[in-house]
Amino acid sequence: MRGTQTKPVAASHHSSLNSLHKADGRIVMALKGASKPWWRRDSSAGLVLLGATVVSFLLLNSSIGETFRNLLEQQIAGLDIGLGEAAHPLRAHLIINDGLMVIFFLYVGLELKRETVEGPFKNPREAALPLAGALGGMATPALIYVAINAGEPSYLRGWAIPAATDIAFAIGVMSLLGRRVPPGLRLFLLALAIIDDLGAILVIALFYSSHLTGWALGGAMATFAAMLMMNRAGVTALWAYWLGGLVLWGFMLLSGVHATMAGVLTAMCVPMRRADGGSPLLAAEHALKHWVQFAVMPIFALSNAGVTLHGAGIGAAVHPVALGVALGLVAGKPIGITVGTYVGGALTRQRPPGTMLQLVGTSILAGIGFTMSLFIGGLAFGAGELATPVRFGVLGGSLLSAVLGLLVLWWACRRVSASDGALSADEEIAEAHGVLEDVDEGPARQA
């Protein structure tokens, strides 16, 4: 009898120890999450971006507003970048919008490649739902904008402004609800925003490039081809790609294709893996992450997001461009994403993440356009008289989307128990290190 009782007791004791270890692990993970530095929290980047927007608004509407605008537009020391007709006056706005924003697009491009090569997008079935949602979420806002501005052909150039989603702001607002938001919804919003960024990149390349210069475009193509050959040859030193990217940026700036495309093309060339299983791409992505979130994006917001109220009046707020952008973000995004996701789910026989109301709340948050919407607005209308309506529409639509999305998602998740943090910790580990290949399996394939 004694022998027969020993096994169950030992097994029970072993099971208890396992449970304790798991519980301790959850506690440690939760403590780590609670003690994370502020710059690593999901909401921090959005808050810094919001702060830069407020400062920009205050500056432009203060006594030094005119001086601030002139500082951004004044040519620096009479210098030009480029030769002949392809030359660009060197201004602070050019440095920010065509220079610093290349780093933003490089970071987005690295993220896109990682998700495609090793992330969920490598499996077409896994990518189907966010892809269907993103397509609906880009098409519907554009259609709403076009419907409102159909009477004035010159306004139609801004059709793509409400089609974009700001990753930092959307994820930051969602993070305010903490762990009550199901992890699947967060991953869905992240995937949706990434695909959305890819769509915006294609739109910029196809519809907002003009006056192409043949020799510069040829130089850009040759540089890009050389960087692809470096990848295939097994070159993994990042400095080589940064040097090639700088040359590519110069050609792009002079070619007529928007210079920020150089960041995306450079990211496509960076190798995913070395022979030892390490990842140059992940190293670059995480080295750039905080610079992009806390320097590049706030500087862009500081110089582009402000709205001058003096002389604007109610006319700017109800201008067809402003209404088209705002309604596209607030109404078009949730309608397009929700319908697209359910259609995609029906075709692929997959269930959408969360309940209908949770999906609607998440889709409303995707209406936070901000950075990319402002950027496309600048490409569409420049700094002319339509710049103010664009900013009214983007800022008003994004703010309303943030408030409504937060309220709807809070209501939809009010009965959801907070998760234990284990999945969140696993996601962070995966994001930080990637899926490392076994060194014993031989050299890793370049991608």
Explained architecture:
This protein has 447 residues and is an all-alpha fold. It has a single domain, classed as Up-down Bundle (Na+/H+ antiporter like fold), CATH 1.20.1530.10. It contains 17 helices and 2 strands. α4 packs antiparallel against α11, α5 runs antiparallel to α13 and α13 packs across α16. 43% of the residues are buried.
Secondary-structure blueprint:
Blueprint (H helix, E strand, L loop, with lengths): L1 H33 L7 H19 L4 H9 L1 E7 L6 E4 H26 L6 H26 L17 H9 L7 H25 L6 H19 L5 H18 L5 H9 L10 H25 L8 H5 L2 H29 L7 H10 L4 H12 L5 H26 L9 H12 L14
Antiparallel strand pairs: 1-2
Helix pairs in contact: 2-6, 2-11, 4-7, 4-10, 4-11, 5-7, 5-13, 6-7, 6-16, 8-9, 8-10, 9-10, 11-15, 13-14, 13-16, 14-16, 15-16
Class from secondary-structure proportions: mainly alpha
Q: Give average pLDDT, whole number.
A: 79
Estimated helix fraction: 55-70%
Q: Which strands sit side by side, in order, in the main sheet?
A: 1-2
Give me the CATH superfamily.
Answer: Na+/H+ antiporter like domain
CATH topology description: Na+/H+ antiporter like fold
Estimate the global geometry from the Cα principal axes: globular
Under CATH at level 1, the class stands as: Mainly Alpha
First-last Cα distance = 63 Å
Low-confidence stretches: 1-33, 420-427, 429-445
Backbone CA Rg: 24 Å
In total, the number of domains comes to 1
Number of helices: 17
**Largest sheet entry:** 2 strands, antiparallel
Question: How much strand?
Answer: under 5%
